[in-house]
Amino acid sequence: MTTSHRPIALITGASRAIGIGVAIARALARSGWDLGLTFWRLYDATMPWSSDPEEVAVLRAECEATGARTVAVEADLAQVDGPARVFSAVERNLGPVTALVMSHCHSVNSDILTTTVESFDRHFAVNARATWLLVREFGKRFRGDFGSGRILAITSDHTAGNLPYGASKGAMDRIVLAAAHEFKALGICANVINPGPTDTGWMTDELMGQVRRDTPLDRVGLPEDCANLVAFLCSPEGGWINAQLLYSNGGIQ
């Protein structure tokens, strides 16, 4: 392992070129961070956008061109030992993690009547339990200066018609906000970001039109909008913002 003066961020769910996780990785690389990245191709392959194995390699090359060191770890975060294995891989290749940024998710639409027990459990395993295990691992391993640590998670307020996703994201929010208080002695700031509807390839033209009409700035959110906020919150200047659920959604109604 080579040493670096750059702090290290672990970003989960950084696989798709137009995804929020990838935009966050680019923003933090430009801001002077080294990056541990996780991805899970089997999940992407089940989604309409499918899985392109080249996207992770392209992302790493882009980030390394800014001077960042990177490591990518393919991990099924529904596995109980997944978070610990990810942290160990990042520490082994880069060093101790200063910022944990969680943009992974499992999202398959279903409502109260059509959600299966299997789907419900999978959503909670990835969106809630993995978040707890990642946060726990970060707290156990954190060695940074007091006030330098960051935990961030990307959430959603979508619940009706997408019950297991929305419910598990609600649980995720509480876990992350608890860390701001339970990790007080470590000086770790923990926040949740709700970016609102973001153009990552899942919206229909009709829905995008509705989002534009409902947003005062007359556009949909972009992954870079969320990434810019993450970069600020990870900076020393963002360190006074703590234990908050932040809406960065252009004022959509």
Secondary-structure blueprint of this entry?
Layout: E1 8-12, H1 20-30, E2 34-39, H2 41-46, H3 54-65, E3 70-74, H4 82-93, E4 99-102, H5 117-141, E5 150-154, H6 163-182, E6 189-194, H7 205-214, H8 223-234, E7 245-247
Parallel strand pairs: 1-2, 1-4, 2-3, 4-5, 5-6, 6-7
Molecular structure report:
The model has no long low-confidence stretch (mean pLDDT about 95). Helix 5 links the parallel strand 4 and strand 5. The chain has a single domain, classed as Rossmann fold, CATH 3.40.50.720. It has a 7-stranded parallel sheet, sandwiched between helices. It is about 45% helix and about 15% strand. It contains 8 helices and 7 strands, in the order βαβααβαβαβαβααβ. With about 250 residues, the chain is α/β, with parallel strands linked by helices. Helix 1 runs parallel beside helix 3, helix 1 crosses helix 8 and helix 4 packs parallel to helix 5.
